[in-house]
Amino acid sequence: MAADPLSDALAHIDARCVISGGFSIGGAWGLSVWPQARLKLIAVVLGSCWLTADGVQNPLRLEEGDVAVLNDRQVVALASDPALEPTDRTDLFEDNPGAVVRIGDDQEVLVLGGHIDVNRGGEDLLLTALPPAMHIRASGAEAPAVRWLLDRLAQEMASLRPGATAAAQQYAQLLFVEVLRSHLAESVALPPGWIRVLADERLAPALRLMHADPGRPWHLDDLARSAAMSRTTFAARFKSTAGVPPLTYLHQWRMRLAMRALREEDVQVSSLAASLGYSSESAFSHAFKRTTGIAPRRYRVLSTTPES
């Protein structure tokens, strides 16, 4: 298969979507939400509501089938009317983890909530590449897949069938991928970063080359040629889109590969250095320490030591 930078990145940061619960409600209502995770997902399975959050200029109207992903927001509220004062009902969700809580007698709206878990080294890669809020509309190109996944999630969470928890986890993961795919189609709303490069059809071939063979001594001319651009035009466009020059991106990706290998694989540092294109273990170790502030062997010891 061809190189897939999105799958590569999600795998290397161990991105995992977890649906933590939900609620059904009706009438006039407002609830405050206090996200425990930095990346929160909110999906409307039935009905509609308004979402407000710190750092998001205008309230978002979430219709049935819509999904919102909030990036590092501290205060979030959902309501039938954004003018209503929200009520803090954190106790309901703490007492019923993983469940869909029924609030009141009217059941006009069904909302599912969750978050995206990443490993210790992955938050900066994902969070800096996403805007404060993403709104995936049910009318968008990915709507059929998102709608089907939301329905399946709600059914599995409401069922007592064997494997319901495992099935819900898989559907949640697919939902996050569909959300990212949908947002790739709206690259203008993305901050500079690797996800925005993926959305740029002219630059994506160069990104795929770097991910397919990160140990190759890529030159700017090689990458510019893959994008059918001059060296100068390619370098300028890549930097404005990714936030860093192309060879800096390559270096950063190599370091991320190295960190994951040191955490999870029993690989010799010399072999790792060669696989990532370094002429010697010493050259790799110097590059790794400049990036992380710590030598590769020390990083391995610290990253494999259980947290107290």
List the helices and strands and how they pair.
Elements: H1 5-12, E1 16-25, E2 30-33, E3 39-46, E4 49-53, E5 60-62, E6 67-71, E7 76-79, E8 87-88, H2 90-95, E9 100-102, E10 109-117, H3 123-127, E11 133-136, H4 143-158, H5 164-184, H6 194-199, H7 204-212, H8 220-226, H9 231-242, H10 246-264, H11 269-275, H12 281-292, H13 296-303
Parallel strand pairs: 1-9, 2-8
Antiparallel strand pairs: 1-10, 2-7, 3-6, 3-10, 4-5, 4-7, 6-11
Helix pairs in contact: 4-5, 7-8, 8-9, 10-13, 11-12
Structure description:
The protein is α+β, with helices and mostly antiparallel strands. It folds into two domains: 13-189, Jelly Rolls (Sandwich); 200-303, Homeodomain-like (Arc Repressor Mutant, subunit A). Helices cover 44% and strands 19% of the residues. The protein is built from 13 helices and eleven strands. The strands form two sheets. It has a six-stranded mixed beta sheet, with helices on one face. It has a five-stranded mixed beta sheet with strand order 5-4-7-2-8, with no helix packed on it. It is elongated, with a radius of gyration of 22 Å. It starts with a helix and ends in a 5-residue tail after the last helix. The model has no long low-confidence stretch (mean pLDDT 87).
